[in-house]
Amino acid sequence: MKRTYKMIAAGAVALLAVAGLSACGDDNGDTGGGGAGTVGVSMPTQTSERWIADGNSTREGLEAAGFSVNLQFANDDIPTQQQQIDQMITQGVDVLIIAAIDGTALGTQLQAAADAGISVISYDRLIRDTPNIDFYVTFDNFQVGVDQATSLVSGLNTHFAGVSPWYIELFAGSLDDNNAHFFWNGAMSVIQPLIDDGTVVVGSGQTTIEQGATLRWSQEAAQTRMENLITAHYGGGSGALHGILSPFDGISRGIITALQNAGYGPTLADGLPVVSGQDAEVASVAMIDQGVQYSTIFKDTRLLAEQAIAAAVAFMNDETPTPNNTTDYDNGVFVVPSFLLPVSTVTVDNIQEELIDSGFLTREQVDAGVM
Ligand code: GAL
Q1: 93 contacts 119 by C-beta, under 8 angstroms
Q2: pTM score
Q3: Pocket probe mutation, ligand 1, options 42, 178, 179, max atoms within 8 Å of Cβ
Q4: Cβ distance 81 to 97 under 8 Å?
Q5: pLDDT digit string (tens) for 200-233?
Q6: Nearest alpha carbon to residue 137 among 85, 110, 99
Q7: Tell me, what's the pLDDT at 44?
Q8: Which tens digit of pLDDT belongs to each residue from 327-345?
Q9: What are the C-alpha distances in Å from 176 to residues 8, 55, 130, 152, 310?
Q10: How would you label 212-230 residue by residue, b for 16+ Cβ within 10 Å and e otherwise?
């Protein structure tokens, strides 16, 4: 029976690859589309625009390929995500696409999925400590960290040329997200040698991922930590501070708010520390455009959705999707066959080329700072 999906789905995916997938869409939680099979799509949260775009791109592509889709967002609440996946399994989905909140919290659900013969695609964040995932689609997460740190250093060279040492602080993502460790390790491969040779000084001395961590990637938590660091180590705002490693745009905005409130800036031209980011969220791209946030990492989530859809189509057809990495993503039980997409760094110099010309954002959205 699964064979019948093949022609429709393969054709539709080819079309999508040519046309590109739209990042816009409608409400949460619909079941729609054709009758060729059902895919459950479990996304972590709607508080960050990237996951809304991921969910909508995935749903639209799957529906265009002829599948029914059950898309759910879990409000960053682990029991909610567990329940939503339980319901998808009960509903009888053929394939699950999951971006986990806590990468280690879905073992029971995934055992039930395996027992029911459901293929599982781990989306962007690796699901850990289970044998019951079939494929992983993501970006080159170590490279993301390398690029964040590299842009931090180029920003320091641009905005604080001749200063020695540069005083910096380090922020990490949520420790229950496998990606946070890849970003950190990539970034520290660039920063640790600069700490060792005295080029940079982490003023707080907080140089472990645990010290830098931000539970659930929370903007508020990041702002609070930055405020505390400024109070404890930078004289409440009078101390020299030149750069902050930030792994995600929401965290970057929390950091920038704390810095500006303490009197730094308000722009890079006025001495605001250089702050990195990730996801090319429109609010941060607007701040980059205005000379406030220094950089972000652009990950084209339309392409990620395309890969997830191609993998889902393969599983529907009793085929195996083709990985391009079979070495780097050990989930604690096995090395998961993975497909990694490339990333790029965005600064004020290439917003047009990377984000607008590619159709990811419009000039109007960047100017307004909202989607
Ligand atoms: C990570 C993801 C990043 C960012 C972050 C916070 O897993 O790879 O792109 O979105 O979550 O949502």
Answers
A1: no
A2: 0.91
A3: 179
A4: no
A5: 999 999 999 999 999 999 999 999 999 999 999 9
A6: 99
A7: 98
A8: 999 999 999 999 999 999 9
A9: 38, 21, 15, 25, 27
A10: bbbebbbbebbbebbbebb
275 vs 252: CA distance, rounded Å: 7
Indicate which atom in ligand 1 lies nearest the CA of residue 178. Answer: 7
Q: 278 C-alpha to center of ligand 1: Å?
A: 8
Q: Which atom of ligand 1 is nearest to the CA of 179?
A: 7
Give the start-end residues of each E strand in the chain.
31-33, 38-43, 68-73, 95-98, 119-123, 135-139, 166-170, 200-202, 243-245, 274-275, 296-298, 338-341, 344-346
Residue 352: pLDDT band with limits 50, 70, 90: very high
What is the average per-residue pLDDT within 94-102? Answer: 98
Under a CB-based contact definition with an 8 Å cutoff, are residues 306 and 299 in contact?
A: no
Output the CA–CA distances (angstroms, integers) from residue 105 to 69, 119, 213, in the order listed.
23, 18, 19
Cβ atoms < 10 Å from Cβ of 36: 21
H helix count then E strand count, the chain: 13, 13
pLDDT over 60 (residue 256): yes
pLDDT band at 320; cut points 50, 70, 90: very high
**For ligand 1, what atom is nearest to the CA of residue 248?**
4
CB-count exposure of residue 318 (10 Å: 0-12, 13-18, 19+) = exposed
Look at residue 22 in the predicted model and tell me its pLDDT: 35
| Nearest-atom index, ligand 1, CA of 99 | 7
Residue 35: its pLDDT value, please?
55
- Residue by residue, DSSP assigns 170-181 as E----TTSHHHH
Site to probe by mutation for ligand 1, drawn from 42, 45, 50, 140 as the one with most ligand atoms within 8 Å of Cβ, is 50
Give ligand 1 pocket residues (Cβ under 6 A).
48, 50, 124-125, 173, 177, 179, 217, 248, 278-279, 299
Specify the ligand 1 atom closest to the Cα of 299.
Answer: 9
